[in-house]
Amino acid sequence: MRRAQSADLFFENLNSISVNADAIQIIDNARDFRRRLLALIKNARRRIYITALYLQDDESGREILEALYQAKQNNPELEVKLFVDFLRAQRGLMGQAKCIGNVRLYRELAEKYEHSIDILGVPVKSKEVLGVLHLKGFVFDDTLLYSGASINNIYLQENTRYRYDRYHVIDNKSICDTLVDFCRRCLLESSAVRSLTEENIPDKKKLKHPIKQFKKSLRLDDYRFTADKQRVPHKQVSVTPMLGFGGRRNLLNDSIIQLLKKTENHATIFTPYFNLPNKVNKGVKRLLKKGKTVNIVVGDKTANDFYIPIDETFTKIGIVPYVYETNLRKFLKRNQKFVNSQLLNVYLWSHADNSYHLKGISVDEQMHLITGHNINPRAWLLDLENGLLIRDPDQLLASQFRHEYQTILTHARRIEHFEKIETLSDYPEAVQKLMRKVKRAKLDSILNRLL
């Protein structure tokens, strides 16, 4: 009882913004996400603020970036700012040949157009493996397009393949002002944040001190907004924008734990990489022991963006999906009795050669966390994350979220028994060898903290 009261108190003390329920819309697929993104760019009149892990130098990345430049040429007063991870922007795709990365495209288009836009690199850490800019959210005037997706061919389904994500549209000035205020106040004011269109971008060694100061400011900062103190009006929901950075004073992490504690009937967790933090694992186990239902939707190893098909040359990065699958099998084995009783429902998503990138938590059809947070140790401790917590006590959005959930499950199958998950002996020989080396060197626990 004490835990339930603690969760109640947590949410009672959480500031929020009231939003009309009909101002929130869920988009079903990558192609519609792309169309909406381009339409919002074209119709923006005052401001465009985009935060994403990266905008790739490929057909879709070029299309979006040229659309941003064209919007600026058509309306020079339009404020256009694109924030991406500083280190991720200066390399190619994982496993590919070394190159200068996406900055080549950024510089090329900066020289092409008369009116410039700001493309800014945000160095959250001095090494990419230790943390990246993982903030999400595209602001167009007073409309927020929120997704875990970055900008490239597969996220926007340039061809037939896609990386499945969640896509939410919220029309609300206060929420957009809140996200823009953080970008202006914390990102733009930091000497660590640098333009990526310049020829001589400082290297991370020269930015060592500014990055240290930037990290310190991030740990102390949060979204700032005027909270609606009154009870949520009829036909409205409450939305709380929240940041998360590091293991301490992390409102986003805290909200994930409190959502599990608050669950009365069922909780649904979306994660692309099965590697739950210890506190989340314990929260899930506590719910199951109390007879609550937990649904987890995770990508099959073949739907992981690091998966290397068996007919292609294997490289070390290809071990990642197998590490996650090993985690999943162990989890299912420990909790098989709850699988049998259908209190625990784990769904593996797989659709042709497409990949899965969904994140978030829903509780009792009344509370929904939409986020880029992977709900894994890396997101928990290293990356700069954000999210929007939607509280909907009257279930005004229940039908939309239910439809989204059913759409997601279209290409997912429930795992009936842990033995349905492959083991080391089932893996390709190259994977087996690398997995054994990792185990012998006792690197598996380190890998799980960094993945």
Topology, element by element:
Elements lengths: L1 H11 L4 E4 L3 E4 L2 H14 L3 E5 L7 H16 L4 E7 L17 H10 L5 E5 L14 E4 L2 E5 L15 E2 L2 E5 L1 H16 L5 E2 L12 H13 L15 E9 L6 H12 L3 E6 L6 H12 L3 E7 L20 H15 L1 H5 L3 E6 L5 E2 L3 E4 L3 E5 L5 H5 L3 E7 L6 H11 L3 E3 L14 H12 L3 H7 L1
Parallel strand pairs: 3-4, 4-5, 8-15, 12-13, 13-14
Antiparallel strand pairs: 1-11, 2-9, 3-6, 5-10, 6-7, 7-9, 11-18, 12-16, 14-19, 16-17, 17-18
Helix pairs in contact: 1-7, 2-3, 7-8
Instruction: List low-confidence stretches.
Output: none
Which strand order spans the largest sheet, edge to edge or round the barrel?
Answer: 1-11-18-17-16-12-13-14-19
Assigned CATH superfamily of the largest domain: Endonuclease Chain A
What count of structural domains?
2
Query: CATH top level of the largest domain?
Result: Alpha Beta
- Count of DSSP helices? 14
Secondary-structure arrangement, i.e. CATH architecture of the largest domain: 2-Layer Sandwich
* Class inferred from helices and paired strands: alpha+beta
Number of strands: 19
Average of the residue pLDDT scores: 94
Assign a percent range to the helix content.
25-40%
Largest sheet: 9 strands, mixed
Nearest-angstrom radius of gyration? 22 Å
Shape: globular
**Euclidean distance between termini CA atoms:** 35 Å
Q: What features would you describe in this structure?
A:
- With 451 residues, this protein is α+β, with helices and mostly antiparallel strands.
- The chain has two domains: 21-220, Endonuclease, Chain A (2-Layer Sandwich); 237-450, Endonuclease Chain A (Endonuclease, Chain A, 2-Layer Sandwich), CATH 3.30.870.
- Helices cover 35% and strands 20% of the residues.
- The protein contains 14 helices and 19 strands.
- It has helices at residues 2-12, 30-43, 59-74, 103-112, 173-188, 208-220, 251-262, 278-289, 320-334, 336-340, 377-381, 398-408, 429-440, 444-450; strands at residues 17-20, 24-27, 47-51, 79-85, 118-122, 137-140, 143-147, 163-164, 167-171, 194-195, 236-244, 266-271, 293-299, 344-349, 355-356, 360-363, 367-371, 385-391, 412-414.
- The strands form three sheets. A nine-stranded mixed beta sheet has the order 1-11-18-17-16-12-13-14-19. Strands 2-9-7-6-3-4-5-10 form an eight-stranded mixed beta sheet, sandwiched between helices.
- Helix 1 crosses helix 7 and helix 7 packs parallel to helix 8.
- The radius of gyration is 22 Å and the shape is globular.
- The model has no long low-confidence stretch (mean pLDDT 94).
